[in-house]
Specification:
- There is one protein chain.
- This protein is mainly alpha-helical.
- The chain has one domain: Rhopdopsin 7-helix transmembrane proteins, CATH 1.20.1070.
- Helices cover 76% and strands 3% of the residues.
- It has eleven helices and three strands, in the order E-H-H-H-E-H-H-H-E-H-H-H-H-H.
- The protein has a three-stranded mixed sheet with strand order 2-1-3.
- The chain is globular, with a radius of gyration of 21 Å.
Length: 311
């Protein structure tokens, strides 16, 4: 009988973005700054929407939830990275690694579904304006949000449970700054066929179906906008979905870019550096995209600061 001294591990080693000691203070300062900007920017969006009654509409309801998810998404990876740099360690316990993977997949999936739901909201607002308030009522918006949470929860739970069945050997180094799912399962000694199958099927469905929905929605939106006779009407209609379209392009462009390049390039460290784009940079830029391109958000932020700092 084969010995099973490798079936349980207590920790993994996160190699991070660089092993050069002189770069660690720079990485710490850079990622701490980006994390604080992400947290503050998204929190301000949430506060602006919740305190301004004019923004209590489906579009801003989903935007506030997207901002909350972006805070959580970044918080699953960056604080641990900062702590490791500060404490000059690369260790993450087995339990923390599994937990980090679970929440990373949960909030990543929520980002995916919320962007799809927001595309549907814009489709209804522009293509069916007369029925918009009837269809996109608070109950239906709540159901769409609940469905996004349930689907993300089930997908991340399934992948997490499948990781728990794996046995790991002595090679426990992860060439990343967090427990990236694909890299962790390929450190296993046991058969990972089921994990790979579920991962590719789930990721395929979770990318293809939402992207198809988004593409269909914007195809209909563009068709409707082109039918508007006045240039001012076209601009007004497009401006309501311009920010969302920018965020979609940024999110899916970086995610697909990282995973397509990782399939072609075997350099795990290069993939880790590229993944910073969708794990840190995209959540940081989202508040700027929505606030700079949206007059309602800018006005709500002004009102928020006037209340906090009365003149």
């Amino acid at each position: 009988m084969e010995p099973e001294n490798h079936t349980h591990v207590s920790e993994f080693i996160l190699l991070g973005l660089s092993e050069e000691a002189e770069l660690q203070p720079l990485l710490f300062a850079l990622f701490l700054s980006m994390y604080l900007v992400t947290f503050t920017g998204n929190l301000l969006i949430i506060l602006a929407i919740t305190t301004d009654s004019h923004l209590h509409t489906p579009m801003y309801f989903f935007l506030s939830n997207l901002s909350f998810v972006d805070i959580c998404f970044t918080s699953t990876t960056v604080p641990k990275m900062l702590m490791n740099i500060q404490m000059q360690t690369k260790v993450i316990t087995y339990e923390d690694c599994i937990t980090q993977m679970y929440f990373f997949m949960l909030f990543g999936g929520l980002d995916n579904f919320l962007l799809t739901v927001m595309a549907y909201d814009r489709f209804m607002a522009i293509c069916h304006p007369l029925h918009y308030t009837v269809i996109m009522n608070p109950r239906f918006c709540g159901l769409l949000l609940l469905a996004s949470w349930v689907l993300s929860f089930l997908q991340s739970l399934l992948n997490g449970l499948l990781v728990l069945r794996l046995s790991f050997c002595t090679e426990l180094e992860i060439s990343h700054f967090f427990c990236e799912f694909n890299q962790v399962i390929h450190l296993a000694c046991s058969d990972t066929f089921l994990n790979d199958l579920v991962m590719y099927l789930a990721n395929g469905l979770l990318c293809v179906i939402p992207l198809t929905g988004i593409f269909f929605s914007y195809m209909k939106i563009v068709s409707s906008i082109l039918k508007i006779s006045s240039a001012g009407g076209k601009y007004k209609a497009f401006s309501t979905c311009g920010s969302h379209l920018s965020v979609i392009s940024l999110f899916y462009g970086t995610v697909l870019g990282v995973y397509l390049s990782s399939a072609a390039i075997e350099n795990s460290r290069a993939t880790a550096i590229a993944s910073v784009m969708y794990t840190v940079v995209t959540p940081m830029l989202n508040p700027f995209i929505y606030s700079l391109r949206n007059k309602d958000i800018k006005q709500a932020l002004r009102n928020l600061f006037r209340e906090d700092y009365p003149i």
